[in-house]
Protein 1
Amino acid sequence: MDGILLGLETALQPSNILICLLGVTLGTAVGVLPGIGPTATVALLLPITFEFDAVASLIMLAGIYYGAQYGGSTTAILLNLPGESSSVVTALDGHQMARQGRAGPALATAALGSFFAGTVGTIVLAAFAPPLAELALQFGPADYFAIVVLGLIASVALASGSTVKALAMIVLGLLLGTIGQDQFTGVPRFTFGVRELYGGLDFVSLAVGLFGVAEIIRNLESRQSASIVTKKVEGLWLSKDDFRRIRNPVLRGTALGSVLGVLPGGGHVLASFTSYSVEKNLSKDPKKFGTGVIEGVAAPESANNAAAQTSFIPLLSLGLPAHPVMALLVGAFIIQGITPGPNVINDEPELVWGLIASMWVGNLLLVLLNLPLIGVWVKMLSVPYGVMFPAIIAFASIGCYSIGLNSWDVFAIAGAGVVGYFLIRWGCEAAPLLLAFVLGPLLEENLRRSMIISRGDPSVFVTRPISASLLLLAAVIIVVAVLPSVRRKREVVFQGEDD
Amino acid sequence: MSTDSSLADGAGHRPAPFRPDLLAGSTFILFGLAFAIGGSRYDVGSALRMGSGYVPLALGSLLVVLGLLIMVMAFRGGDPAIRDVVRPPVPWRRGGLLVAAILFFGFFVSGLGLGPTLFVTTFIAAMAGHGTSPLKAALTAAGITALCLVVFVALLQLRLPVLGEWLGG
């Protein structure tokens, strides 16, 4: 409780409210652009936040993240162009509502559902992160190794598409993470004598390349033909009947999202898909789903946002990112000189609680400001793609260059963009790679440390109860993921994604 | 290479192997080999005292195995997730322009400074668009350059010179 008060005190300082507002607005403005999902938005705007001190920059980042998610739902509803897989479900019914002239209620439902879910998610986060961090302080290197493995394996199971390809992307990400100076011996690895690579590949460049440039190349495959269904959005208020209809879906979506969000590797995607199918199954008239029912917007949007909130739990308590945006936040922590892990919550209470409270403030700002500003966002949607993507290239280049004034960080964008474009085209997902890239050094460090402690005896991973059970869980997940029956079910859950 | 010959063999009497899987598999094999061979040149060490090369060698070998599995998948009907999706051809020229734009920025930003580099970068990038004429690209580039200078130099005050040392900035 003290923590929340401290957090509110931090987050409600006028300068921090302003920062949060700036983040939310920028996040929405970029996130609303078609084809740019939350991950790309956060990666693109990340360098801007380095101008501020640690607390302010993380508050701004969280604001950008929420704004980007909200912007993504707006694009999904108005254009039927979901920026990231988690808003695919929102587009199903949301876009149909927009075509029927009910874009206003759809957007309002998304915003209100998200706000409610975000509030609940914040409370869950505040309740569970500290005890988990406490527990994590007792983890040895072997346990940490096991939990990283579990996180990576879970991200494979939750990825859509082929399991083998997702595994290969993870291993590739881990390998890319070994570039740079070896943290144990100081030997520069795979740097080809380039001094600028001693610090490793820049993760912002990797994220911008994989999620931004690769997507632009994909969009250039064919002429963009998306058109806005409605230039004017009217009637933002929900009727009494609408409120009655969304109440239970929002509650169920929030509950599902809060639980699933903790899962590593894409819990928020799973949450929005699951909550949609739950609503469909509970409905008296399941056939109507997909034709523009308000429940089909309310449930996945709440689930998505609750999950977005609770996915901070593993980050703030264990230092483990649950999905690519969290991985970017880990990078931001490190650039600010803070090592994410169980100690952060005790060492930097102002930072952690301020971040948690500002998420709630950010959600509130979204509802208060973005609904009235919807006209501005719709205008952003009408920026032609031919103008938009050169601007993204410019922002990406300046952003990555400005972090370290290092040309190699810019070259890395191009490299990651090209490799990412082809791998994604060949059915490999980018998210596991980025996650593995960030977790790679942690994995190697703890592996080597545990082997030294155990004097080279690999049984240390199965004799310690924590690491044994985590690794067993990982093994179960991987067996289950490749079993054909589960695979079919997974395909049903993810079927909307290939459209 | 082996990829080409297997393609030729498969075309005759049985269904052709699924190309995206072959390409993905061989990409992973190439990366895996590069890291494994590179890793073996560093001190590999033992399980007790792992050297700098241990983890890259182990993971690189694992990646080769996974790449081979994906190649096998190509001969068994291909990845069901993308098998039936028809994709437009790869936009080589447009993608190439995009990459050239980014590389230009990386090579010249320190010498030419932010202003001129941005203009050329965004001009090259804009030329990748569908139906963008050079005039339109130049106008787009001028607009974006002005916007970026206002945002990054005037508002955010990044320490990037607008004109580089080559231009006396």
Protein 2
Amino acid sequence: MEQLILASGACDPANEIICKPDNVVDLFLYEDNLLSIGPWGITRTVFLILLAMVIVLALLFFGLRKRRMNPSKYGISIESLMLFVRDEIAVGIIGPEGVKYYPWLLSLFLFVLVGNLFEVTPLINFPITARMAIAGGLSLLTWVIFVFVGFKKNGFGYVGALIWPTTVPVALRPLVGLIEFISTFFLRPLTLAVRLFANMAAGHLMLTLLLVSGWVFISSFSEIGLRALIGVPWFVFGLGIYVFEIIVAVLQAYIITLLSAVYVDSSIHIEH
Amino acid sequence: MEELSGAVAVMGYGLAAIGPGIGIGLVVAAAISAMARQPEAAGMVRTTMFLGIAFTEALALIGFVLFFIA
């Protein structure tokens, strides 16, 4: 096996305890352009972003194309997915005025869901949300929206209620206010992005590690004989993780949408 | 501290995973007992449980990211 997957080429297993490439990001980096139009190059990641966008639009378009009294099974499933986001997340968390934020929450949910499920799609096997640029961009959008909504609904009382909370004793207000300020404006977008990114990156690493190393062992049966059987439990374990990753992909799409709704809700109703 | 090199980042991640592990256990245990006592409130409890898990899990995930950065 010439090409090492996770260990860097210059790694000496006798001295180094962990062999990892200088930059793990290399696993998620595709720098070769598939095609380039003028100054813009379409790499694999960009292509997958556009593909996810097309898939989301196609899902909604074909699901809602015909409005009839007896919709098809496909139409019902798309509609129940949309109703889930509207009733459980938008209205369930924010309240009746949450319907205003429903289009954004639905696009966020579907895009992240499709992006996450790329991880377990055969022949793609690369979650685009495992790139910090995409997770960070989405959480930055959430940040802009909840800060804007906070200022629009409550004026400067939004920041005032954060840094001078009237529900705690006076002596503690500066401390609690500082913590609240930092956690709202800096830690919220950071953890929102890191949660999605780290879950997807960890899943991608685990699948790569288990499935590929198991396969490398099994496929070298002719060279190392019966010892190749050690790859079998790894491969089986990798398949178990594969099922687990499907659950994680759906759950993380749900959680990022839920937290976005919670953040918007806390900007609208600042009293708690 | 010279001899402490190599796998320090892994140990850091292990330490970072202790707290969230206990925390997620507490969150889920409380959610299960709430659902068992009041099954009709299960939907609401489940949403809140995922929120609690998400907030608790963030610490472990930051540790995981630090493992790559370090």
Protein 3
Amino acid sequence: MSAVIGQPGVHDHGEAHDHPHGWRRWLFATNHKDIGTLYLWFSFAMFIVGGINALLLRSELFQPGLQLFQPEFFNQLTTMHGLIMVFGAIMPAFVGFANWQIPLMIGASDMAFARMNNFSFWLLPVAALLLVASYFVPGGAAAGGWTLYPPLSTQMGPGMDLAIFAVHILGASSIMGSINIITTILNMRAPGMTLMRMPLFVWTWLITAYLLIAVMPVLAGAITMILTDRHFGTSFFNAAGGGDPVMFQHIFWFFGHPEVYIMILPAFGMVSEIIPTFARKKLFGYSSMVYATASIAILSFIVWAHHMFTTGMPLMGQLFFMYATMLIAVPTGVKIFNWIATMWRGSMTFETPMLFALGFIIVFTIGGLTGVILSVAPLDINLHDTYYVVAHFHYVLVAGSLFALFAGTYYWLPKWTGHMYDERLGKWHFWLSMIFFNVTFFPMHFLGLAGMPRRYADYAAQFTDFNMIATIAAFGFGLSQLIFLWAIIKCIKGGVKATDQVWEHAQGLEWTVPSPAPFHTFETPPIVK
Amino acid sequence: MSIGKKTWQLAVTTALAAWAVTVSAAPVNDMPGGPAVRQYGMQAPVTSIASGQHFLHEVLLWVSAAIALLVFGVMLYSIVKHRKSNNPRPAEFHESTAVEITWTIIPLLIVIGLGIVATGEIVAQKDTSNPDLTVKVTGYQWRWGYDYLKGEGEGISFLSSLSTPREQILNQQPKSDTYLSEVDNPLVVPVNKKIRVVTTANDVVHAWWVPAFGVKQDAYPGFVRDIWFRAEKVGTYRGHCAELCGKEHAFMPIVVNVVSDADYRTWVEDKKKAMAALLDDPNKEWQLAELQARGEKLFNANCASCHQASGKGVPGAFPALAAAPVVLGPKEPHIEILLNGKGQAMPAWKQLSDVEIASIITYTRNAWGNQTPLNVVQPKEILAQRGAAK
């Protein structure tokens, strides 16, 4: 390599950089772009699988009474929908973006640990196979909810063991991915790119990666205890043996709450890249955005028990977790205000990435406000475990994380493929997703307030109309995603040549390399001034 | 334009189809003590706790609406005014410490205000001291058990199971207005008395929830937790299990009858008499017909949700009892399964009385064409086997 430095443009590396073709290119992939592509396709496949689960359970909920499935299968659908979407779709999708974009954005030639990168990806299909296979073992898939609360989870058949192993493997993959991301960001930035000059997407991923390393082992511990309770006679969560089922909930949510920020912080990062580009104006309050992200991450460790207000915790516990949770609204609000200030007096155009970013702000704000409502412990007592909560977390997760992922895909797709995507398809995708999403999930607030519990296979006939509306719109939302697939395939196959800059006001190192980004980029680090 | 028109037509057709399905379904009325048709807000409060929650929800809703209106309003204005066609040259500014501090402080103050309002409510909710009546609520898969521990009615104890007929769930009969929100034995409490509810569970985590009271408390096996309520209006109020507890999670509702003091006294007397009558002499020899009649009722309330009233079970999920080897074979293994459960699906039923278990077994040994020489099981046989197990 030393020979290369100082001779930019000379590709005299002999065999070392010759990369395999065909299936070997993917199985033995060590290039961050190839691995990023693998992650993104994998997560899209899981998004479809998880989505089919969701549509099946929505079909059962179309009318009161049991029409299509027995309740035990319904519970498997809700559980697997949650596990697959969280661990199979949303998290790997963000890692895919990290793989593609972080080296390009910090001017690095690749990720720090290329072979570990390969391993952390190829663990995922194994875990996915375990999850999907669990439907076909005696007793079916895990049916205790994605939260896997014992003692219900100790009652299940072998499907639960498969789910536990799958989550173990996914956790290992996430930890390796995070180590890779942190090492890359801290050691491989181009000369001149100080921490406070890093793009916000890189910042949010750096913080997210630390969160992952902190909490994935905690989850692994919790589910290992369930495993030994199930098979080796321990009683961590069994009162008869001196254990406590509530302890699982504490451990789970100590993982679980940072986990929800793991799924939203990189989304904040993407939106912070996209809005300045299309407003043709620098991001407002860069440093306060960084500090707000860090504050949210730190607060995420001290709010977990707001998922547990109905467990009957003592008064001081409820007060502490209520206050801490309410506090999160402050840095989150700062972010939203900064985005709007970025738009203010800008010169905006509304291509698909911008539409999804604006859609993100709207639905995420609604989800954030219902989050504040739920944080109020005495009120949460009545709303906990109802459809209000289902509505809330789908507003922040589907509309939040997923819309940001769509925005990011359209934003960087020209850089990845070398072609502009079809703007008309993108707009159709946005408007249909936005409308169907809201029609699906907004009535769920009503259902929750009126008293419909979540995870119910059947419900009182008074709830029928809102459920019907939700089911019909859920199918609309699901089918709209086929437009997304179509737009991507069309963009890969061809289209208008993308320029290097792609967007008029795009800033950052990734826009200085050709479109499509060549297999090797920044072999000589760029200088950032 | 042609695509737009087609999509529009499709949307209209879909909406019409949805409407047609809705109106063709059986007409539903508001549920007494439960949600109204298409209810979009919280159920009418009947306790001070629920009124407090209503107040909090109103406050939060309006604060949220104001914030949303402001944020979205500014955003919309910017989208219209600061688009490239209206504002071709973007401004240059990109930071302002004063502005950042302002929009950190203002939300902080709003949050502190909300926190103060909420704190009083939470303190009131947690105060379970000096109750007039204490009831222990036990969550079972999948029914509730009520034990009156202290106060008028002390000693009363019963199970409360879903009473919606299976035919309604399977869409063979029209659904009633109280579909899935009705039970055989409701909890009965006096009006305007402080009721302390102590929750626990037998198997997995359940949660006892009555929306109109604003109380929800998880029930943990091996632990007790408590909450309280004071219902201010006579009536019937309905709730549900709110923590996923397995396959029949949606089928273990809660019904609370709030009655006047006088009615409560009458109910306690009647219930005590009925319970005394139920305290049968375990050594009494029962007649086949007596056991069968009692067993049929108990079977339909407790067993038919899995094994079906037809005794045919659900193939692949729940075994048939008609012509089943266990039901036709020796008595001991049959009694053993009822007392201690089997595998993951069949729970233990030891909380039922000897007479009740004997009745159920006797019923199943004679129903659906089952024929066995060992067709009568006496309560004392259950008692003997219970004792042997200890």
Protein 4
Amino acid sequence: MDTRTTPIIMRALLFTILLVAFAATAFAQSTTGTVSMSATVSKFVEINSGGAITLSGNSGGGVTTDGVVDNPLAASINLGELGPSNTNSFVTASVPLKLRSNAAYVLSMSATVTSTGSTSNKIVNTDVGFGLGSVTRSGTGVNTGGSDTNATSGDPTLAGNGSVNAGTGRYEYTAVKSNLSAFSASTTALNGAFILNAVPRSNTNGLTVPAIFAVKPQFYENGSTTVSVTFTVTAP
Amino acid sequence: MNLRFVISAIFLCVLIVCAATTISAQNFDISSGGQPTITGALGGSVSGSSSVLNNLVVTINFGEVSPANANSIVKVIVPIAIRSNAAYQVTVSLASSFSGNAQAVQSSDAGFGVGNLRSLGAGAKVCTRSGHIFYPPFNNDPANTVTINGSGRAAYQSSLANISGSTVILSGPRLTSGSVTRASDNGYAFDAIFAITPQFFAAGVSSATLTFTISAGPNVPC
């Protein structure tokens, strides 16, 4: 083959390749296709009412706005008369809470106590006992093996959680985090492991715990008192 | 060497190859079957071509599937077009990245089904001696077959967990009347349907890739 024929052969080859490429393009086919997918799960927590509020030991008063299970917690309670005319040992309100999460949770609480009185004998935050009762994890889909840490001392009316101050004669809640003075700023009341396994939101189970508030009727300065409590659950 | 002889030989070879290919080839094609759609998503999306002339390349982002998504289900429909000049089958294989945490999204949490075979148009081959078969358990819309199992978790008639290796989901007789040139009317389309029920999954990100393949299937008559 001489040097003149090589370019001709190369052009013929190129032309052939172009023909084949054109044919391949014109009859484009693919025997495979792909579908790629992804999904995200973020940490999720919620707090709702765990049901109806129980008010006991009250003289007058009542539950103004009751809790409705699985609905947002927005309860209102009138504790009634807290002076000595109420002869019960304690006025107690038990507010059921329901927590749900797909991650470890922290339940915090903050509270304010405001009284119209002008002396130290008015009701103040140390006069309002507080504690979280027994934590219950039960029902289909609940992580029943998860543990919880109650930072409060439980039912504030328990004998071990308070007593009459020998010096002042005033009843005091003396146990750890047993009155609202411990929650003047947002403070952890309960924390624990994830609450629900992989179940739909329509599953209404969760962790329930009663928030117990108590006031011992005493010779408080007359007036009215407002207690405001905010619960917050987070997944740190 | 004679130049004319060389060129003639090259052309002869090419012609022989082309002729052989044309005569003997069973041709198959899979492509987009139309615009994919997504419903019930929170921050999700799906992208893919609306043209049946384009390759099947779909990306689904189911978005948030924790209870923060208050919808009962996130559903995605991916239309897929298929063409063939011979009996065919469609298989699917799965490559995935799911957490080892049993409470996280698993392959069984992604419902997957197929159905709704329809003609693309006049160029589709209508066969009367054999039918097109969607293989169980995939012959369902997973959004309509959700149940709650004993542990309270959502379950489906079929899910990504039912895909093992290359799994046949559809087969049937010839799909295309003429040659399997990719055109808008010369085959069939079906829907691949995906569904995830938002649940209290453990936090994290999951991903998977499905590969759909069309090839020669059971030799059924047209």
